[in-house]
Amino acid sequence: MIVPYCGAAPLPAEWLGRWNLDPVLIVAIVGAAALHLGALMRERISDGRNPRLILAGAAWTLMALLFVSPLCALTSALFSARVAHHVVLVAGVAPLLILSLPRRLAALRMPGLAGTAAFLLHMVLLWLWHAPAPYAAALADTRMFWVMELGLLGSALLLWLAVLAPAVRLGGALALLLGSVVQMGLLGAVITFARTPLYDAHLGVTTPWGLGALQDQQLAGLIMWVPAAIPYLIAALMLLVSRFGAGVADEPAR
Fold it and tell me: What's the confidence (pLDDT) of residue 104?
């Protein structure tokens, strides 16, 4: 029997007690968070405040929720939970980490071609790891699981760096965001309209949660199709407001 990294699929009655207390994972998250927050605390901010600290704290809190809390175990039972996990990772944790970079790193710039490459890499990895065979391999081997998770996070970081870089052209950033919404929507549609269950690891383990495997898969597709687009649309709106707001502020008073 294959046991995924997050453990065997839990029953509803036991789910909330299924914390992932992997010491290597906990040390890695705590250590990385401490380094990140420490670097931000050492920055000298003229008004004594550093909003990046709040964003960094939110990013590492989400990271712990995804991999340490019972949500990790839930992904072993429900493919819809796995998809929600991945959406939060690439569209929640990743942009928060980029927005909370220390000032010496926040000025990093990515040329237009690098942004396109980051988008294509992220798209390929997203489709790859949600294909049945690679997904099954990631659940069967802890090393492959982390290749999947770190690959999705790393490529998402590159994509959000290209979108949120200070000198990026507004049109280029909006194109990357729109492309992300479209390709995730297409992947969600493929998963939603599949006529048979595609993910063998979730066969038989969704029933205690009141879902058939196909229903769970359809829910996963809908999550990727609709809610997953919201962070990208919010980012596009914020970019538009910030750019046009700055333009209005720079206009001479009449």
Answer: 78
